[in-house]
Design goal:
By secondary structure, this protein is mostly helical. The chain has a single domain, classed as Tetratricopeptide repeat domain (Serine Threonine Protein Phosphatase 5, Tetratricopeptide repeat), CATH 1.25.40. Helices cover 70% and strands 0% of the residues.
């Protein structure tokens, strides 16, 4: 159910504008559903697409941070800890390097667990 709702949201966002923060957000959300279902490859493709879209909007915006953190989580789920650390580090650099003890950046974006 969540998968179909997120896919519909992405379709609507793309229909409105293929290069918008809303499209990047929808891609991130759909990627999280795939990651939660254990399909890290599908999730990774969506997160990479979200990163491209978000960077086209603005190179240092919250959706870029979101996509990088989600990529880190996908890499970690695949056991690719070096890649996970690289993506999480890039997100922290944009975010300002501050992460709460609860694993969330000040903006509320998920940060890959260590």
């Amino acid at each position: 159910m969540a998968l179909s709702h997120c896919q519909r949201g992405l379709d609507i966002a793309k229909a409105l504008s293929a290069r918008s923060a809303e499209t990047a957000n929808a891609m991130n959300e759909l990627g999280l559903v795939h990651l939660g279902l254990g399909d890290a490859d599908a999730a990774m493709a969506l997160f990479e697409g979200a990163l491209d879209v978000a960077r086209a909007v603005a190179p240092r915006n919250p959706q870029v941070v979101n996509a990088l953190n989600n990529l880190a989580a996908a890499h970690r789920s695949l056991g690719e800890t070096d890649l996970a650390e690289r993506e999480a580090g890039r997100a922290r650099e944009i975010e300002g390097g501050t992460v709460s003890p609860h694993g969330r950046a000040p903006s509320g974006f998920l940060v890959a667990a260590e």
